Amino acid sequence: MTVMIPFEEGQKALDWLALTDALAAGHNGPKADVADVFLYEGDNTLLNRSAWIAGLGLAVKCATIFPGNKAKGKPAIGGAVNLFSGKDGALEAILDFALVTKWKTAGDSLLAARRLARPDSKNILIVGAGTVGHSLREAYGAAFPAAKFTVWNRSPEGARELQAAFPDIAIADDLETAVRGADVITSATMSTDPVIKGAWLQPGQHVDLIGAYRPDMREVDDDALNRARVFVDSRETTIGHIGELKIPIASGAFSPDDVIADFYQLDQFRRHTPAEITLFKNGGGAHLDLMTSRYILEAWSASV
């Protein structure tokens, strides 16, 4: 029997730290087979992602990304996630797209931050106050409960909306000042040009990049990549697909060999010194949607 898991009811059984543990465990098993298909029309994107992992099953996620919808009062992202059994191919669950996306996206970054950010990080900057920014406040708050949060957003209205949801969050007027003063910078913008400069980075910081998902998008400049030890969630779904790395590799400013590790090498996700700068690129591949969907289904089944 196929289970239908809606957003609000589905997330009641979920825990951010437990999700990161599930993602780590998923990367200890067989490597995923993944396939991505991107179709574009102007600024709009159709993204179809599929993954198959022995022991976890199969997932197919279809997403439409229409950035212009926000101005019309409509959701910018839509789609659906189907979770199939790896034993007989049966459709086990249909999960709310926003539920899987929210927990996968922020959980992906949180897994890296729990291993790369300094445990004593006290100041966390969120760059971008959209839907993902809200999720990042929840996720990072679970792992760094004593931290103070600040948000910077291109539009003050967006920053105030995030502050209304989380009254303890401060609003930064100047991005450079906010970056220089943060222990962790987590960025989720729709920018095609770097918004964070390497010259602003300080010793001991952790930089978490989420927003760029297209070949023409990036959130940091070449200097930031070259000053940091760089990690990714998946080499296969980031290096040759996302502008954050693809553009500087094409120009010769960065090399694929400069990526230290991905999640299939989690034992290498660690700091060598408190002063080094770490940088993580969250690509959010289909294998993470599968791992997250399996975690959600198991949590749902245990709660009903």
Q: Explain this structure to me?
A:
There is one protein chain. The chain has helices at residues 7-11, 16-26, 97-116, 131-143, 156-165, 175-180, 222-227, 235-238, 243-251, 286-303; strands spanning 3-5, 33-41, 44-53, 57-65, 77-84, 91-95, 123-127, 148-152, 170-171, 184-187, 206-209, 229-232, 259-261, 278-281. The two termini are 15 Å apart. α2 (16-26) crosses α3. It is globular and about 55 Å long. 34% of the residues lie in helices and 25% in strands. It has two domains: 3-101 and 287-303, ornithine cyclodeaminase, domain 1 (2-Layer Sandwich), CATH 3.30.1780; 105-284, NAD(P)-binding Rossmann-like Domain (Rossmann fold, 3-Layer(aba) Sandwich), CATH 3.40.50.720. The model has no long low-confidence stretch (mean pLDDT 96). α4 links the parallel β7 (123-127) and β8. The strands form two sheets. Strands 9-8-7-10-11-14-12-13 form an eight-stranded parallel beta sheet. A six-stranded mixed beta sheet has the order 1-6-5-4-3-2.
